[in-house]
Each structure stands twice: as structure tokens, then as C-alpha cells.
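new request in #modeling-help
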Amino acid sequence: MKLPQSPTLVLAPLLFLAVALLAADPALAAEAAASAVTAWWVWPLTLFAVTVLLGIVAILGGVGGGVLFVPIVSGFFPFHLDFVRGAGLLLALCGALAAGPSLLRSGMASMRLALPLALVGSITSIFGALLGLALPVNVVQTALGVVILAIVVLMLRTRGRSDAAQPKPDAISDALRLHGIYHDPALGKDIEWRARNTAAGLCVFAAIGVLAGLFGLGAGWANVPALNLLMGVPLKLAAGTSSFLLSVIDTSAAWIYLNRGAMLPMLVVPSCLGIMLGARIGARLLRVAPTRVIRRTVIALMVFAGTRALLKGLGI
Amino acid sequence: MTPDPAKGFVSDEQLRYAQWLDLGTRVGLVLLVASFALYVSGLVPPHIPVAELPALWVLPVDQYLAATGLQGGWSWLGQLRSSDMMNFAGIAFLSLVTVGCYLRLAASYLRNRDTACALIALAEIVVLVLAASGLVGVAH
């Protein structure tokens, strides 16, 4: 495939995304739902187009699809937040399931490291999902806005630690043998790693599980800093293990939404297919994309979507 | 062909898990796409006419269930003749892939007498099955 060489071509999806979001104005959506002026198929088709673009942007910006999908779709589409959160979880789950096999085979994800963290996160994500479905929608929407804006602050302030300095192990890490070696093809060498602060890591993953279930967000934005900065796992292994963790944590929360009836196939399927197609395109564009510009654009998009969710939740 | 240097550092359990995950995800996606194609093509009639969806998807889930006469949990299994309910087969399958992989994983750990990891894997299966069972937070 011939790749575009100009940053303008790479940034075109972002521009189209902004136009698509403006076209999906919620006031227009509510009017359309009430008067049935807009044909039903317009919404899943628009959703598919937007999620393809979100998939591209998410890969290029280094964030998960769910963290963009939930605030943007709940803010600019007519679907109720209950269904958007259910779709957000399944979308993150599909992405993680699709990426899982190659990450596990290449050793870029560690199952042994993920096992205890996934157990804690999957238990608390059930409580998060139950809480999210019990709370008034304006409270969840407001909290979503606050969380998205907090993630932006985290993204701006956090710098990954890519060195493989050997931290001191702890008793839990030793007992569970949370250490190993992986091969980094980019560096052409084997990297030894050892987890630390395991007790604190388990507590953080308990909180991450609640947020994932509550807001329907894939929690890659939180997993990677927790694994890398807190537990001392090398950045690449942290990113790969995070993706595998999502496939477990999001599964338990997704079941709560599914059993509650908060999954609409007309919303879920186009979103999952769109984000997976976008992620494949994004992965190809990654080599030529102006990553710094795109990352800033993603942050701007998240500020916009987070503010929108906050204002919508506050009824402003 | 040069041997993959990663293989030496990846446990057999992890490789088998990847194999099951790959297969399960492919089957789930095929189910999802096939059932959605039947749904939107109109070849099989849905439980809820698609033209009515724009008036329903704006509702909170409780009101949506009341308006459509649907129930939560696994009730969709009894309505698989409707194309919209068929989609839940793909969604549920994808949500069960991890459980199947963990069953395989727990068996491997038990065989290798890795008690700690086996117990964690078994506990994870209990959590996921509990979530999937509908015993927690299902709509009535």
C-alpha cells in the first residue's frame, strides 16, 4: 500500500471527524428522533464513518478507542448514555481481543503479570458497571466530563519511562514470579524486567476497574502509566500487557451491560467494525504521521469532548 | 527462516492462550458480521422494526426495555428467530472468549503444579461466569 507522505493527508481524517461531529449535532438528533425525518440508517452509517476516524486517531494519538468514543458519541449522537457506555466497553473489548494473540505470541504482553491485576480489575469493574447503571444519567455524564479532562491532564504531565532499570522486587511480586525477559525487535536486544510496588499496583487497578465499568471506557490510558511508572514495567511491555488486561477487565463489565439490556446491536456492531478498521488504517499511517501534531489534536479533541460531556451533564 | 527470538521467553501457557484467543475472536467476529448483515439487509425480520429504533435509542435502558417488551439477561436466546436478537449471539460469544481461554489456562497451570497462578485463573473464571450468569444486576 502506498502511504501518504504529506502531514496534510494524515490530518485529513481529523478535519473530517470535526465536520462529522458538527453534522451530528444532538439538537438535530433529538429533533430527528422525534419527527423521524432522518432515515434510521443514517445514524449507524455516520457512526461507522466516525468510528473509523476515531480508530485512526486513537492509534496515531496513542490512546484507546473507548476513551474517545464514549464522550464523543454520547455528546454528539442521539443515543442514550446507557447504550453508549455498553458499546464503548464492547468496542474496547473487540480491540483488545483482536490485538491479544500477536502481543502474547511476541512476548510484548506478559500473562503472568496481568493475571492478578486483571482479577482485581474485573471484580471492581462489575461494581463500576452496576454503579453507572444505578446513578442518574446527568451525574454520570458530569463525572465523565471531569474524568476525560483529568485524563488530558494526566496525558500532558506523564512521560513514559522506557528504561529497564531493575527495581527492588516486593514479596507479592516474588511470590507470583512477576518478572521475565522479552525481546525488543526495535532495539534488537533482550530486556529483563521485574515488577515492584505490587500491592499499590493492585489498589490502582481496583480503581481503574471501577472507572472502566462506570464510564464504559477502555482503560489503557490508566493501565500503561500504572504499569510503567508505578510498577516499574518497561513501557513497551506495559502497553502490550495493558491491551491484554482490557480483554479481561472489560469482559466482566460488558456482561453487566449486556445482561441489563444496555447493548444495542445497531450501535455496537458498526462501532466495533469501524474502530477495528480504523485501527488497521491507523497502524499503517503510523510510520508517516506527524505524531506530535496528532497527539496535540487528540488532546484538543478530548478537551472539547470532555467539556461537552461536563456541560451536558450540568444541563448547560 | 530465522527463529523468532521472542519464542524462547514466552511460556507454553501464554502461547496456547494466544492460540485459543485468536480462534475465538475470529469465530466471534464472523458471527457478529453475519448476524448484522442479516439484520440490516432485512432478510430475517427483527423483533424491533429498524424504523422504530430512532425513537427508542434515546431512552434510558429501563424505559427502552419497557417500551420494547424485552427483558434483560439471557432472554434473547429464546428469540433467536429475530435478526436483531441474533446479533447477541456474536456479542455474547466475544464476551465468552476470555472465559474459554482462562479454562484452558487454569488446566495448564494445574498440570504444571503452578498453584498460585492456577488459583488466580480459577478465581477469574468464577468472576467472569458470575458476571455472565445474570445473577448480578440483571434487568427484571
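bot summary: DSSP finds 13 helices and two strands in chain A.
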